[in-house]
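W.,

You were right to be curious about this one. When I first looked at the sequence I had no strong expectations either way, so I just let the prediction run and decided to look at it fresh. Below is the sequence, 176 residues in total, followed by the output.
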Amino acid sequence: MKNIAFLLALLFICSTSTSRAQQTINKEKSKINFHITGGGIFKVKGTFTGMQGDFHLDTADLQSANFDICVDAATINTKNNKRDTHLRTSDFFDVEKYPKICFESSSITKTSSGYQTTGNLTIHGVSKDVEIPFTFSENTFTGNLVINRFDYKIGEEFGTMRVGTEATVTITCVLN
């Protein structure tokens, strides 16, 4: 009987370790989509890719769940090379000085419509506490938030005539 209990415990530990080890980010499928108004009359849509970091989510044990994830700021893609090149300069994201956009969670809670993570979002060298409501289904985290670019000192000298203030962001993190 002791041997059976030992084997069951060993299987449980191994399956738990395996599920955590499998929480690696699929860099090809994971991305951040955003849109922001341009000139007050049209939307500029784009993506960031190159997502990597630590993703630990056990929905049965949210106390031990945490995220520490970054994307490569230089991967910004709005399907306009001239605009993308400008967005990478010190006028906006300054990717030479601030190569990563990162989020580190401080808590993850269950909500009526899914989950919410609270944590520190760092963009352009500025860190702010944010809340990201999200769902998690079929190994895919999908979260949404609105970011005020002035909070992160992005493109301040351009005001709001050419570029909107708030970007609507959708994070899709697919796990292998």
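Here's what jumped out at me. The chain has a mean pLDDT of 87. And, maybe more interesting for your project: Residues 52 and 146 are 21 Å apart (CA to CA).

Coffee later to discuss?

I.
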